[in-house]
Design goal:
This protein has 217 residues and is α/β, with parallel strands linked by helices. It is 47% helix and 15% strand.
């Protein structure tokens, strides 16, 4: 299957993508991983991306599209893939369609993880990260540490990242609404969108998505 996963920041795309890709036996292709891999390997696209990032500029769509196309042509993605974070805007969606058409392929579904905006803000603004080990993540409501402000795992100080502050989260949501949300209508016109309510336990959301794809238990 060839699937695109969309949803606002805080919808749980990364978590759901990992589970869905495993259940469907297809690679999870995320924009973040693409950038890290290309930059660490020093590929021409990675070098180009890094030059923009080092200058504090946005990486052009052409570079992101090039990285995604290279990844989709790798052997493990021949039978399908799950795209997470790409396409991010209409231009990228049109480029993805053109790429797939050139290969005689098409998308099977676009999964839209739906979460109320207030819940998104609560999820992200409530996150607290350990300064010693950023893989230790807590939440002021959903995953409280035993001692406020202290990491259960290593005793490090817990803090709120700048990106997680409420005003920043609301700005990120504005960008999502203006840039990414239009691709949902674009794909609705192709009858590809499946809306998945993303509230509830992770396993429950995964099962809803699997059921919608016709792979339920």
């Amino acid at each position: 299957m060839r699937i695109v996963l969309v949803g606002p920041p805080g919808a749980g795309k990364g978590t759901q993508a990992a589970y869905l890709a495993k259940n469907l036996a297809i690679p999870h292709i995320s924009t973040g991983d693409l950038f890290r891999a290309n930059i660490s390997q020093g590929t021409p696209l990675g070098v180009e991306a890094k030059s923009y990032m080092d200058a504090g500029n946005l990486v052009p769509d052409s570079v992101t599209i090039g990285m995604a196309e290279d990844r989709m042509e790798q052997a493990d993605a021949v039978e399908g893939f799950l795209l997470d974070g790409f396409p991010r805007n209409l231009g990228q969606a049109e480029a993805l369609d053109a790429f797939l058409q050139s290969k005689g392929l098409k998308l099977d579904a676009v999964l839209d993880l739906e979460v109320p905006e207030d819940e998104v803000v609560k999820r992200i603004a409530g996150r607290r990260i350990c300064r010693k080990d950023s893989s230790h993540v807590f939440h002021v409501e959903y995953n409280k540490p035993q001692t406020e402000g202290v990491c259960d795992a290593c005793g490090g100080e817990l803090y709120q990242r700048e990106d997680d502050r409420e005003d920043t989260v609301r700005k990120r949501l504005e960008v999502y609404h203006s840039e990414t949300e239009p691709i949902i209508d674009y794909y609705k016109a192709q009858d590809l969108v499946v809306t998945i309510p993303a509230l509830g336990k992770v396993a429950e959301v995964t099962q809803r998505a699997m059921n919608a794809l016709g792979h339920g238990e």
